[in-house]
Specification:
Radius of gyration: 19 Å
Helix content: 40-55%
Number of strands: 12
CATH class: Alpha Beta
Largest sheet: 8 strands, parallel, barrel
Order of helices and strands: EEEHHEHEEEHEHEHEHEHHHEHH
Number of domains: 1
Shape: globular
CATH architecture: Alpha-Beta Barrel
Strand order of the largest sheet: 3-4-5-8-9-10-11-12
Bound molecules: NADP nicotinamide-adenine-dinucleotide phosphate
Distance between the termini: 42 Å
Structural class: alpha/beta
CATH superfamily: NADP-dependent oxidoreductase domain
CATH topology: TIM Barrel
């Protein structure tokens, strides 16, 4: 496993981060907790020391499961622990809430569920248009002063939003979507983070599994992906063909397609880590190699070109309503 300093923080994190969204039944259905626990232990054995969750995953369920398991196995000290706040899910319908009192309460709730005294990286899950940045900062700086959080991150924010927060508190890390199929942040957010030494931990590096190339054309997803564009119908079939074309390129470097897809993300110089949604120990087996491989510049662009073509075709089919 390889490690990187996360931005300007003192956190030395593995290039693969263990993502816990898969513990949200609403999105991923019921996964086997025993298998998931096995995967956490296996990830630790392979050198993964970074784990990402959120209070909203399963409305607290993911943090509760992780907290129980960390306590039972005495794992807390072995992980850099990242979680997020933003959603107020105390009412029947959740809504964005980064007001001062909600942040303080959300942090207390996360600490209790995670059975820990301190969160290493506390992240704002998305942009809340209605709360002033100085109010957000007041809550975060209070939590830091009280020793309950160590560093601050943001997720799904653009450059202007990061800049605005940065005037009030240090933004140490960005958590954006980034993969061969989601490259929107390349133009502005990644250069901004490089320039300001803000760590970048990319989520959905496998585009929720699609970039593994492991699904057959007749595959029917039984979780929230069933209704997600690209995961069904003609666009899905078109993308599967394109992703299959990555095979020879992956082989050339002794990699599988998912390894190539993760390596592609990690090759960008702004990237600290890739957050992979892991459900079982088999998933873990793949990732160490992805962290350690080398993808030369020409083949990085070749892979990007293959998937850009496939995506353009899939987008045309989507626009035509296919
Ligand atoms: N900040 C945010 O807004 C945000 C949003 C999304 C995700 N995240 C974070 O990022 C993490 C990862 O994102 P993600 O779950 O969307 O996408 P992902 O990591 O791109 O894809 C996860 C899916 O890929 C498949 N998979 C994972 N590892 C594999 C392996 N080694 N070999 C073969 N298949 C593998 C599994 O699919 P199958 O289930 O089909 O086996 C898994 O459910 C989440 O767990 C969460 O921590 C954050």
């Amino acid at each position: 496993m390889q490690y990187r300093q996360l931005g300007k923080t003192d956190l030395n994190v593995s290039r693969i981060c263990f993502g816990c969204w898969q513990l949200s039944p609403k999105f991923w259905g019921d996964i086997s907790i025993d298998e998931w626990r096995g995967a956490v232990l296996r990830a630790l054995e392979t050198g993964v020391n970074f784990i990402d969750t959120a209070d909203a995953y399963g409305d607290g369920e993911a943090e509760t499961e992780l907290g129980k398991f960390m306590a039972a196995e005495k794992l807390r000290g072995k992980f850099v622990l990242a979680t997020k706040f933003y959603w107020n899910f105390t009412q029947s319908e959740r809504f964005p809430d980064t007001r001062h009192d909600h942040i303080i309460q959300a942090c207390e709730d996360s600490l209790r569920r995670l059975q820990t005294d301190v969160i290493d990286l506390y992240q704002i899950h998305a942009w809340d248009a209605l709360t002033r940045p100085d109010e957000v900062a007041a809550a975060l700086l209070r939590l830091k002063k009280e020793g309950k959080v160590r560093w601050f991150g943001v997720s799904n924010l653009n450059v202007e939003q990061m800049r605005l927060y940065n005037r009030h508190f240090p933004v140490d890390c960005l958590q954006p979507p980034f993969s061969l199929l989601a490259r929107e942040i390349e133009a502005r957010e990644l250069p901004y983070c490089l320039d300001n030494r803000i760590g970048v931990i990319a989520y959905s590096p496998l585009y929720r599994g699609l970039l593994t190339g492991k699904y057959k054309p007749d595959h029917v997803f039984e979780d929230s992906r069933a209704k997600t564009p690209y995961f069904y119908g003609k666009p899905f079939h078109h993308l599967l063909n394109g992703i299959g074309e990555l095979g020879p390129l992956a082989e050339k470097h002794g990699l599988s397609i998912p390894q190539l897809a993760i390596r592609w993300v990690l090759t960008h110089p702004a990237l600290t880590s890739a957050i992979v949604g892991i459900k079982n120990a088999d998933h873990v087996a793949t990732i160490t190699k992805a962290a350690e491989a080398v993808l030369p510049q020409d083949d990085w662009h070749r892979a990007a070109g293959i998937i850009a073509n496939a995506k353009a075709g899939a987008d045309k089919l989507l626009a035509a309503g296919d």
